[in-house]
Amino acid sequence: xxxxxxxxxxxxxxxxxxxxxxxxxxxxxxxxxxxxxxxxxxxxxxxxxxxxxxxxxxxxxxxxxxxxxxxxxxxxxxxxxxxxxxxxxxxxxxxxxxxxxxxxxxxxxxxxxxxxxxxxxxxxxxxxxxxxxxxxxxxxxxxxxxxxxxxxxxxxxxxxxxxxxxxxxxxxxxxxxxxxxxxxxxxxxxxxxxxxxxxxxxxxxxxxxxxxxxxxxxxxxxxxxxxxxxx
Length: 231
Description:
The protein is mainly β and 231 residues long. The chain contains no helices and 19 strands. The strands form 6 sheets. It has a 4-stranded antiparallel β-sheet, with no helix packed on it. A 4-stranded antiparallel β-sheet has the order 9-10-12-13, with no helix packed on it. A 4-stranded antiparallel β-sheet has the order 15-16-18-19, with no helix packed on it.
């Protein structure tokens, strides 16, 4: 989520800042909240190290949750992108762990990146996210067009290849039903617009692609039938 204030600020508005000065600053929040369906209640969880606005989330095979990307601040952004390091939440201990071993642990992703847990146990980024969003730009946003894996074991990213249509904004990514022995996954990606931030004003596209991700880490892409209408 987000918090809004003015930059420069004398103090936080909730601490009595008497006036709005400067320009509006957006700050991603590090908050996490847990919903219990048994009691129908929310409770605060441990806070992330980094504030994140529009991050990506995916549940891992062991029940932990990986969070990637998200914007920390707009004006005082020191990363020239969204948050470059991932964090993992352990529901058993209510703790977050920063995933960092070196340069390969850092990666620039768009806001709300589309992520899935792949058959090889790694998290797959399908080169799709919210490319058109307030200040979703990055110095290295050309890499948004690369399909990539994050390995929870090594805590590092690796490139799988170039998406056939480049970076796609606002498209849907749907895993199709898997079949035994569950060593291959097919993702259907459809709609959206094309291009990295700040996005494009071209009409919504009808394009659809099939991405096959196998347990050995191989990735192949093919174009499939278009939607009847761009979406």
